[in-house]
Amino acid sequence: MKKFAKIMSMLLVLSMVLGLAACGAKPETPATTASGDATTSAPAETTSGEYVDPFADLADDYDELSQAVYDLVLGDFEKYYNEAMAETSTGVRFAKMAIAEAKLLGAGIFIPTTSNGGYFGMSRMAPHSHTLTLWGNDRYRYHDVILTTEPIKASDVQAMREKWNELVGTGEYEEWVKSYLQEQGYTLKNTMGYYFDADPNTWDCMATSNAADTEMLVNTFDSLAEYDMENQLQPALAESWEVSEDGLTYTFHLREGVTWVDNQGRYVADLVADDFVAGMQHVLDAMGGLEYLLCQGCANIVGTDAYVNGETTDFSTVGIKALDDHTLQYTLTQPTSYFLTMLGYSPFAPMSRSFYESMGGKFGEEYDASADSYKYGKGPDSIAYCGPFVVTNFTSNNTVAMKENESYWNKGNNNVTTLTYIYTDGADPLKPYDDFMNGLVDNVGLTGERIEIAKEKGMFEDYAFVGDLDATSFCGFLNLRRAAFANANDASMGVSPKTEEDKVRTGAAVLNQNFRLAVVMSLDRANYNAQSIGEETKLNSLINSYTPGTFVTLPEDVTVDINGTATTFPANTFYGEIVQAQLDADGIPLTVWNGTDSTGFDGWYSPENAQSFLAKAVEELAAQGIEVSAENPIYLDIPTRTDSQVTMNQKQSMKQSIEASTNGLVKVNLIEYNTRDTYLDATYWYTTGDEANFDLNDGSGWSPDFGDPSSYLGTMLPQYAGYMTKCLGIF
What is d(CA 127, CA 426) in angstroms, rounded to the nearest whole number? Predict the structure, then answer.
């Protein structure tokens, strides 16, 4: 059954704030000692001269093994994270989250690499004509996008950006930009073409947390509220709402006359408040990776932890109620200042109860997605629609076509009525340029060869502009306890060339904090980024922290302890400044905040620091029986794609940078994959850490679900609570 199937569930729920794990009631993890010398991660010395695996006795219990590795490496982070989550003051929580992030970054387990955007592009999409909100899924809703039949000149892009800054919050930008474009001689259109690079694994947006499954599907349903193109939260399926004085009860009054249809546009049912209840129960039943957002530490909805953990099967104990057909109420366990920022994400989506049941769907203990009778979410014809679009065609690895929902409650007010996604595997670097010029897609990133062809064709000077960054954090992850040395689903793919001795030596090295810091500081990220977006913009999209440094600011003056010193940060202090203060206090020589931002510079790469940390690691590893020398280097396997020259160039850059910065004491094996899918099997699609087939991997990242730093940091929690912890080879 669903609640205890660990493989079906990539995670359980976020840790509770008072030192207990929400779903497992696990005692708080003891913290390791903070140390600027980064020596706390080394296991005890051996007297025999031979390396002794400190976790050998846990080899047969993957969960205990994962927890032991986590305690050793990230115990300090978890301690500070739990302290932050226990705070009732928003400002103190933000500050303590920043301290926890400093502990996370200082552990050297991963290195932030890039965000989305920041490179040259051309577009037919008016800038800022859909939300720039950094969290949730609203930025993938395209019904409001304003498009032209012609590419938009860079000078006009700049003029519209400046006007947006002037008009933001007034509600006037949409009409102004339409008028402006027409005055400049552009012709508006209502069709949009966009790329996608992976088929949905499921069409059930509530049973998955993979971006490939949800980014298109958010256009098929509406939420209670939605951020508009001026980043203001506007009523959608809810016409209004109110919050109780104690901040624990949210009551939404739903729009009347909204209907569900199938993908042929045929009436299915009226949308009622109970559809939100059905949707939330399905999220908690499916355990597809979104359930933690509803539990303690995120949305804090009453009863969700007990239901997910199997302590109760009575869904009526969960804090969501349909008071009548058009009144919906949520009850929280504690005031949650960011609750409304979560509404656009799919855990809060409605689901037609009657349609779901007609597709064989059941609830509670009867839920069984593997049953022969279960058809829900198997294709675009097995879901119901209440949003601006219905899917009219799906051809695998080719096209997803959507048209306006004729029964949509806001029909006639959409700027886009036809939305077509076109598949790309990224193998042909010039195809996106050709598709843009031919009108198949409406924006194109100009990288490498595309810059050159745009210049040759006379398009670059007038039409190329630098795109905005979003809040995505792509990272390079170190595998702390590698178990897979070939792909889990096909042992003939991605086979490591390492000897058994090499595997042991690498395993010992990555448990050493100084070694990890040496590796992450040895990466020339600017050169790495230049391989995909070119020299001129290579710094723009570099990120230096997991949570963007500008993500939140302190709402009031806050005093917190920084390594024994009471430190006051004034109101409006950026999150990144506090992260930097803690890193400085810990003696970790990283620059994640330059005084104004955490992006656009490389605050990690330093061959000098890499060699200093590596010298400490070599000494510590020698004491454990591991010799590291030019004759006996540590080998790291990094996956790459031979069908993508850009990817090959990036991985060659990583290899050259690591080996040069460590004077050859660390060697890189580039593990080649000749297709995108086999590469993703090793680097992205795996479900638990023991299937992660790499030592260092840059194939994954995170974008926030709601407007609080815990949306990032919570992904690094233990016991399957953190979605990204599997990237570290544990849980």
Answer: 25
CA-wise closest residue to 602 among 659, 671, 541: 541
Which tokens sit at 150?
């012609």
Express each pLDDT in 181-203 by its tens digit.
999 999 999 999 999 998 999 99
* CA distance linking residue 449 with residue 435, whole number of Å: 15
Pairing of strands 634-641, 666-673: parallel
The phi and psi torsions of 537 (rounded to 5 degrees) equal: -115, 15
Distance CA(102)–CA(592), nearest Å, equals 9
**DSSP percent split of the chain into helix, strand, coil, nearest 5:** 35, 20, 50
Give CA 694 to chain center in angstroms. 20
CB atoms within 10 A of CB 409: 18
The count of residues in the chain is: 731
Q: Is the pTM of this model over 0.85?
A: no
What residues contact residue 504 under an 8 Å CB cut-off, 6+ apart? 51, 53
Are 346 and 200 spatial neighbours (Cβ–Cβ below 8 Å)? no
SS3 445: strand
CA atoms within 13 A on the CB side of 516: 31
Q: Is the dihedral of CA 488, 494, 500, 504 positive or negative?
A: negative
- Integer Cα distance of 286 and 364 in angstroms: 9
Give the tokens for residue 319.
Answer: 């804090």
Residue range 591-599: mean pLDDT, rounded: 97
pLDDT tens digit sequence for 246-266: 999 999 999 999 999 999 999
Find where tokens 């720039």 sit: 132
Q: Measured between alpha carbons, how far is 469 from 117 in angstroms, rounded to an integer?
A: 5
Token code pair at residue 291: 């359930």
Amino acid at position 691, single letter: E
Asked if 731 and 723 count as a contact pair (C-beta separation under 8 A), the reply is: no
- Check if the beta carbon of residue 575 is closer than 8 Å to that of residue 547: yes
Q: What distance in Å separates the CA atoms of residue 588 and residue 4, rounded to the nearest whole number? A: 40
**Cα distance between residue 723 and residue 647, in whole Å:** 25
Helix 62-85 crosses helix 90-106 at what angle (to 10 degrees)? 140
User: What does each C-alpha distance from 435 to 118, 423, 438, 444, 595 come to in angstroms?
Assistant: 21, 11, 5, 9, 41
Among candidates 699, 728, 723, which has minimal Cα distance to 713?
Answer: 723
d(CA 509, CA 512): 5
Alpha-carbon gap, residue 376 to 356, rounded angstroms: 6
585: left (phi over 0), alpha (psi -120 to 50) or beta: alpha
CB 409 within 8 A of CB 223: no
Residues 108 and 638: their CA atoms lie apart, in Å, by: 17
Say which residues have a Cβ less than 8 Å from residue 26's Cβ, sequence separation at least 6. 20, 719
Q: Which residues pair with 561 in a beta bridge?
A: 566
Residue partners of 606: CB distance under 8 A and separation at least 6: 521, 589
The DSSP bridge pattern shows strands 696-702 and 320-324 to be unpaired
Confidence of residue 210 (pLDDT cuts 50, 70, 90): confident
Q: Which helix (H) or strand (E) holds 307?
A: helix 304-308
Q: What amino acid occupies position 149?
A: T
| Cβ-based neighbour number of residue 501 at 10 Å | 10
Among 663, 564, 571, 652, CA closest to 610? 663
Residue 5: how many CA atoms within 13 Å on its side-chain side? Answer: 17
CB atoms within 10 A of CB 165: 10
pLDDT in tens, 30-78: 222 233 334 344 444 444 468 999 999 999 999 999 999 999 999 999 9
DSSP output for 555-620: SS-EEEEETTEEEEE-TT-BHHHHHHHHHHHHT-------SS-SBSS-SS--HHHHHHHHHHHHHH
| C-beta neighbour count of 168 within 10 angstroms | 16
